[in-house]
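User: what does the whole thing look like in 3D?
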Amino acid sequence: MKTVDLVVPCYNEEEGLEHFVLETNKVIVSLPEYSFRYILVNDGSKDRTYLLMKKLAKQFDNIKYISFSRNFGKEAAMYAGLQHTTADYVVVMDADLQHPPHIFPQMLEAMENGYDCCATKRDEREGESFFRGAFSKLFFRLSNKLTDVKNPYGAMDYRMMTRQMVDSVLELSEVQRFSKGIFSWVGFNTKWISFKTVDRELGTTKWKFSSLFKYAIDGITCFSVAPLRFTAVMGAVIFFISLIYILITLIQTIFFGITTPGYVTTLFAVLFLGGLTEMSIGILGEYIGKIYMETKERPIYITKFSNFAEENNEEKES
Ligand code: UDP
Ligand code: MG
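Assistant: Here's the predicted 3D structure for the full assembly of 318 residues, as structure tokens:
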């Protein structure tokens, strides 16, 4: 019998987690030829998510959990979950049922047909504001152009992968993880399927616009040095234009004397170039910051409790 591990990052999901497990179980029982296991990762939730996990693990023996010492972010939670997988196929999915389990049969069919990965992309973005939609479109276009990562528009983390692909994903052990990029970067045959997105029923989204912006920047800078090259090219272009301009001004001054006060030129030199310099330093800083964080080689997450190794890791009742 083939095995499937479901990796589910959870942050403050006390409202929806049980519902998620019950709904997913309905799909699981309809697929008796596969053996499913949950790997729930509690990403430092501030609510009762962990207690709920423990309760669910007592109730269902195919539920494993890992609980972090604090909030490390969804990327870290996914990595931790993937590290603990052993199954033939591995699914990464959210705990809020926005990644519907009812497409497991479709995913499994793709895998049995020889794909290494069956990933999802969203079809409709009804629930999304115009601004957010335009922003994500711009991001997708930019990152596909600038990086080795080629994802279709609306690509999501929700996917099923073979053991081999998961092992490759785990080999990229960088601290600053951008999973959508990593999944694409490792290659393999991916089948894209789409489904109609639904709004979150229980609990609230953990994303703010500011974190989306950071996500977009990381998506590009984690996989490409094109922004650095862009600043270098920009610098070179401005340098040559300035050279020509200086030459012209010099000739003018020598042959016709000083004619105009050069108000616009001064403004340009101070404001425009100042802004450009700041921006270039910012881009540099973005990369230096990334190097700095990577050189520390800190662990991606820290486990506090888990029921993987019951004997030494389990919570000590005191
Ligand atoms: N999540 C997490 N750590 C975080 C934020 C989110 O593990 O710091 C989990 C969350 O519990 C959910 C998934 O990541 O299972 C997606 O989060 P959310 O639904 O808030 O994001 P959205 O669906 O709005 O993109
Ligand atoms: Mg969600």
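In plain terms: Residues 139 and 216 are 6 Å apart (CA to CA). Residues 94, 96, 98, 200, 205 surround magnesium ion (ligand 2) (CB under 6 Å).
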